[in-house]
Amino acid sequence: MSVTFKTYVAPTYLVRNWVVPLSDNLEARLRLSNFAELLAKKLPRHCSADAYLYWDAKILRLGVTMFESSTTELAQRTHTPASTLKDAILGPEDNLKIVDGVELFESEMYMSGMHGGHGGGKTSSFKRCLFLKRIGTVEVANILVAAIEARPSSLCYLHLLQGGGAIGDVADDATAFGCRDWDFACVVTGVWPRDQDETRAARAAVQWVYNVAMQLMPLSSGAYGADLGPDHRDAALATKAFGPNLPRLASLKHTLDPDKVLAYACPFPAAPNGQKLIILVTGESCAGKDFCADVWVSVFSTWSSKSRRVRQRPQLPEEHFLKVVHDAVDVDILFITGIRDDAPVAALSHLVPGSRLLEVCVQASRGTRRARRGCRRDDDDDDNNQDTKDSKDSNDRPNLIFNNDTIGNEAAERFSKHYLLPYMDGELQRLARMVRLVHNFPRSGVDFRDVLGISQEPGGLGLCTSLLRTHFADDWAKADVVISCETGGFIYASALAVQANIPMALVREAGKLPPPTISVTKCPSHISSSASNSLREERVEMGRDVVPRGSSVVVVDDVLATGKTLCAVLKLLNEAGIGAEAVSVMVVAEFPVHRGRELLRRRGFGGAKIQSLLVFGGA
Questions:
Q1: Residue 307 C-alpha from the chain's centroid
Q2: What are the φ and ψ backbone dihedral angles of 378, each rounded to 5 degrees?
Q3: Confidence band (pLDDT; 50, 70, 90) for 412?
Q4: Is the pLDDT confidence value at 128 over 50?
Q5: pTM higher than 0.85, yes or no?
Q6: What torsion, rounded to 10 degrees, do the Cα atoms 507, 513, 514, 516 define?
Q7: Three-state DSSP class for 345?
Q8: Residues whose CB is less than 8 angstroms from the CB of residue 381 and which lie 6 or more positions away in sequence, other chains included
Q9: 3-state secondary structure of 521
Q10: What would the pLDDT profile of 478-516 be if each residue is shown by its tens digit?
Q11: 503: how many CB neighbours lie within 10 A of its CB?
Q12: 67-71, 274-278, 569-573: which has the highest mean pLDDT?
């Protein structure tokens, strides 16, 4: 073997730093947008600009570091092409240095400038990194600014590290790294004093990092895999780290490390035999949640030997829920009791986007619960113990409700066979196979599920329509009208309205329906707008008198992702005098990672009953 060494001219670096105080959130969003679009985006390849969003001395600040490399003398070139771009955006820099490659690390703003400099090693930190495009958009900027406002420690910060696009020059399958279509790596960094390691402050900073990462994940092109480890909260990030290369890597890991020697490496999700069904059994104290769950497990055992009930301690952090799910990796149907969180499906489904999550609320009369508790008639009916989830507010509607006032197993068994077993229907799996997976559409790094393609498959539209009708949990005889928003939902809604023999009302873009109409603003979705790069708000409308006040409404759509289309439809219905509690929603496919249910609940529409035939991870 021979080794040949070759020398290259070592570059020197011109480093400029700015610190811009921000008066409020609006200025923060404007500065981020200007930085990304007017400065960083226009820099040549030998320059890069990083941004830091952080609080210092009770003031929100935007820090910017610009690097310019050269193999020629920089001392006489302080007015370089990059300086022309920065003058109008940031003004004169706070400091300027010329350094070599060894000194470059110490010149970084976090080491030398933020919070008095962190070069002394008196702090500990925890980081997770996601890759983003268009950080100046309202949606991304809002998350970034809100994240800094919610920081548990004044030392926490966000580092927006410019990628510059060079990674896009490398073929997708050239390396395992699967995230190439991005402009900035957002490094979410929780920091705390080192003498507080292993304390509540440290744990709060770590949880803050995960919270921000989960909020950014639907808008990201991927995640940085080298940071990830055995923590169950890393599982969702791992699915984003390697893009389309993930199945190949998981297969190699299983083949080359069957004994899991590398247990502390990036967590590759185990290849499931099929989609997991997770049923959260909630309800009132002494309503019989554990009893019902055990009955339902016995019913499912006739369908699959891989079903289990576990009891989750109430109101524990999300990582405990993930641990429960992860520990049941070999289980097809998982029943979890003991959850007291409000709207658990909306709150938790994005953590397990490849699984179907249902909430079944068990109810019983006050007398039945008192009897099961062993109370005398004159005893106080104290339902405020650790296992209570009594008052369901109008903005929190479970998927299913079971009234458990009767003695014996028969009612619970009938409920399970009628409402739960259909979720394991082989026809649903056949429908799922009709949804084509398209890689790198509508942009690189996105795996797109072509739900509308079902209608192009032989028998696909008929099968989908039939399943929408038979899986509807309410009574079709009580439904007055089917409503759908253009355009994807029209295909399935019109076919369903024909089968159910009820009228259909249309929701369209403003100006496409004859008057009189009512209209509302529809916020743009980062998914639907990704191809056109348009994030402008638009208005949608429906006929003013097509839905009589007091009607029972079924909204039908092809997908539920961000929830913004459905939110606009529910706003329209509210304008027409139809409250969310009178609305049932049927969608063909749901993508929980985008947290559409949570958006609807935040907007006050959690009372709508939402059902989906299919559930997919990804876009």
A1: 27
A2: -95, 5
A3: very high
A4: yes
A5: no
A6: 30
A7: helix
A8: 366, 369, 370, 375
A9: strand
A10: 999 999 998 889 999 999 999 999 999 999 999 999 999
A11: 12
A12: 569-573
- Yes or no: say if 516 and 544 are a contact pair by the CB < 8 Å rule: yes
State both tokens at 472.
């509807």
- Region 379-398: mean pLDDT is 55
* Residues contacting residue 408 through CB under 8 Å, at least 6 positions apart: none
Q: How far apart are CA 619 and CA 617, in angstroms?
A: 7
pLDDT at 382: 44
Instruction: Count the Cβ atoms, other than its own, within 10 Å of residue 35.
Output: 26
Instruction: Judge whether 406 and 292 are in contact, CB under 8 Å.
Output: no
Q: What secondary structure does DSSP assign to 568-594, as a single string?
A: HHHHHHHHTT--GGGEEEEEEEE-GGG
Report the amino acid identity of residue 516: P
Residue 407 has pLDDT above 50, yes or no: yes
Q: Please tell me which residue, 590 or 439, carries the higher pLDDT value.
A: 590
Whole-angstrom distance, CA of residue 52 vs CA of residue 30: 15
> What is the per-residue burial (b if ≥16 Cβ within 10 Å, else e) of 519-548?
bbebbbbbbbebeeeeeeeeebbbbeebbe
DSSP H helices, 302-393, are: 318-327, 344-348, 366-373
Cα-based distances in Å from 82 to 20, 88, 350: 19, 11, 42
Cβ contact 399:474 at 8 Å: no
Compute the average pLDDT of residues 134-148.
89
- Using CA atoms, how far residue 411 sits from 287, 414, 419, 487, in Å, is 14, 5, 12, 42
d(CA 600, CA 594): 12
Q: Look-up: residue for tokens 């990674």?
A: 167
Short-list 616, 504, 590, CA closest to 555? 504
Cα Rg, the chain, nearest whole Å:
27
Q: What is the pLDDT of residue 390?
A: 44
Residue with tokens 């007017």: 38
Query: Per-residue confidence at 527, pLDDT binned at 50, 70, 90?
Result: low
Residue with tokens 């309410």: 474
Contact 318, 236 (CB under 8 A): no
**Pairing, β 609-615 against β 583-590:** parallel
Strand order in the sheet with 59-70: 95-99, 12-21, 59-70, 47-56, 157-162, 184-193, 123-132, 222-223
- Among 80-94, 118-132, 394-408, the least confident range: 80-94
pLDDT for position 387: 43
Predicted confidence at residue 135, as pLDDT, reads: 87
